[in-house]
Amino acid sequence: MTKTNGGFEPVFCTVVPPHVLDKLAQHEDPALANPARRTLERDAYERTHRRLTTVLGAPAVAAPPGAASDQPHRTIYDARHGTDLPGRKVRGEGEDPGKDATANRAYAGLGATFELYLKAYERHSIDGDGLPLDASVHFDRDYNNAFWNGEQMVFGDGDGEIFLDFTIPIDVIGHELTHGVTQYTANLTYFGQPGALNESLSDVFGTLIKQYTLGQTAAEADWLIGAGLLAPRVTGKALRSMKAPGTAYDDDVLGKDPQPATMDDFVRTGRDNGGVHINSGIPNHAFYLVATALGGHAWEKAGQIWYDVLTGGELKKDALFTDFASLTVKAAEARFNEGDELQAVLKAWEQVGVRTT
Questions:
Q1: Which of 27, 73, 175, 277 does the annotation list as catalytic?
Q2: Three-state SS for 29?
Q3: Distance of CA 153 to CAs 90, 171, 242, Å?
Q4: Quick one: which H or E segment has residue 256?
Q5: What is the pTM of this model?
Q6: Secondary structure string (H, E, C) spanning 119-147
Q7: pLDDT tens digits for 142-185?
Q8: Catalytic residue at 176?
Q9: pLDDT tens-digit profile of 178-199?
Q10: Which residue out of 176, 179, 199, 297 is catalytically annotated?
Q11: What are phi and psi of 175, to 5 degrees?
Q12: Is 41 a catalytic residue?
């Protein structure tokens, strides 16, 4: 198993930021406010539960005896709109698709994530050692989120008013599972700049999983996180944009996307664990700039550099943007010498206002 950096952080990671749900919870229309309030309450409960299982110890998840670590071991459960996890098993590894499209999407998304990490980076599942991939769908009622709880994936169906089914965007599945990869490697603290790096890495590999599945080059990709998740009534394209942070949505209910693209607009806040879902726009944009400068398939060069930093053992739990940026420079030079890759990395961090020395 890949060794963690100083033990597990009790991290509970959701794809929809608290500031979005806070805004919805204050709406005068109960059809919008009530699901958001229930989601916030459930998230608070799950966050506390995650802390307790970290302190008390969670049951170990093991692959079947004799199972190969380079093959996925997926199990999909149906929570049947309850909150007891994992729920009723509806599909196991290698079994034919059922009639539930949500369960089938979850199964496919877990497989796509496993494949990207295996084929591009020779990583055997989330922990590097063949960890089984479990997911529960149809969690709670009108639940407006998806999360990784340290042990498994959980997907809500959305309220149908603002959010649709959370298994629709494959990058949401990849995003949440990548929190697991970070948990087993750098174990970045989920607060402030380290937390924003944690979120950004999930966006980076979430979008790479989407691009890999679609066979897209960096130039062909939309660089949106969660495209297809917002209901038709919402004025917006996605949850976040790596190409143009701050432009994913501008809606009378949700408000305007608050993500900055550069350090000039860095947001200082005590909410959302110090703005982890907001300031992640800065390293997100740096990755976009590197990937598009180099062209081709983003997982091959830009993604490799980022993966080398995430798993290389030098990224500290409390790393700041400058620490991460400096390590990407070092990784680019180590893998590609002093070529276009190194120059692209240096220029990207300069463009977003993050020092690399």
A1: 277
A2: coil
A3: 15, 13, 24
A4: strand 255-256
A5: 0.94
A6: HHHCCCCCCCCCCCEEEEECCCCCCCCEE
A7: 999 999 988 899 999 999 999 999 999 999 999 999 999 999 99
A8: yes
A9: 999 999 999 999 999 999 999 9
A10: 176
A11: -60, -50
A12: no
